[in-house]
Design goal:
Largest sheet: 7 strands, mixed
Number of strands: 11
Structural class: alpha/beta
Radius of gyration: 17 Å
Order of helices and strands: EHEEEHEEHEHEEHEE
Number of helices: 5
Strand content: 15-25%
Oligomer: single chain
Strand order of the largest sheet: 5-2-1-6-7-8-9
Helix content: 25-40%
């Protein structure tokens, strides 16, 4: 498939590498210009997703600038990989399949930008990760893949992310791409009876330039709404 990746940091770079390894074509990426730290000459380091894209001569655009008019023509799917950009309706419709993103919680629980921190802060014994279809609701679209993990006693949010939720996210993204490549769209509606939303602890609110929406599945694809299978 022909992909566009909106994301950042190590997770965005890992999803980029996974997509390339699986034979997909990445048409472009969107990320912050710089990451943390500096090079030996004192210049700021490039964001890791931007860096891996640059090494493969993939076009890059700054985070927050992705719109329908600059999405590469022929894009099949947008991957949101640690992206804090709000992808709007016109942009989603410009992609053949829309967009999927990874959220580090068992959606619909812990919607919001600091899901991992809130899971730890609230003392949850179990959490997980969800790949979901982006739609007009922030973190509220149908679930494409999901898995769970335990939270170790005393584990910090950063430790939980590195140990379990980061690799889980890459794996779930790969599973969704594999299914889509065979013509299957899995989309299980979230149960709003269990939804929670927690405010951001230390981040600015999302900038929402457009109201997003995903249209019907493209011709030739079937939608499966059976229950998701959870693993250990």
């Amino acid at each position: 498939m022909r992909l566009f990746i909106a994301g950042q940091k190590a997770f965005g770079a890992a999803v980029f590498d996974m997509a390339i390894e699986r034979g997909h074509e990445v048409l472009g990426v969107s990320s912050p210009e710089h990451g943390s730290g500096t090079y030996t000459d004192g210049s700021p380091k490039l964001d890791r997703l931007r860096r891996v894209a640059t090494l493969k001569s993939i076009p890059w655009m700054p985070a927050g600038t992705l719109r329908a008019e600059n999405l590469p023509p022929g894009t099949d799917l947008i991957l949101a990989a640690h992206s804090h950009d709000y992808i709007g309706m016109r942009t989603l419709r410009a992609s053949r399949l829309g967009a999927v993103g990874y959220h580090p919680s068992l959606l619909p629980r812990h919607r919001g930008r600091d899901a991992v921190k809130w899971a730890v802060k609230m003392g949850d014994p179990v959490t997980g990760g969800t790949v979901y279809w982006l739609d007009r609701r922030t973190d509220g679209g149908p679930v494409a893949a999901q898995d769970w993990c335990f939270i170790k006693p005393g584990e910090t949010a950063a430790e939980l992310w590195r140990r379990a939720l980061f690799p889980m996210g890459v794996r779930l993204m790969a599973e969704v791409l594999d299914e889509l490549a065979t013509g299957v769209i899995r989309a299980v509606p979230q149960d709003e009876a269990f939804a929670t939303w927690e405010p951001s602890l230390d981040s600015q609110p999302l900038f929402k330039p457009e109201l997003p929406q995903i249209g019907p599945p493209p011709e030739g694809f079937r939608v499966e709404t059976r229950s998701l299978r959870h693993g250990t």
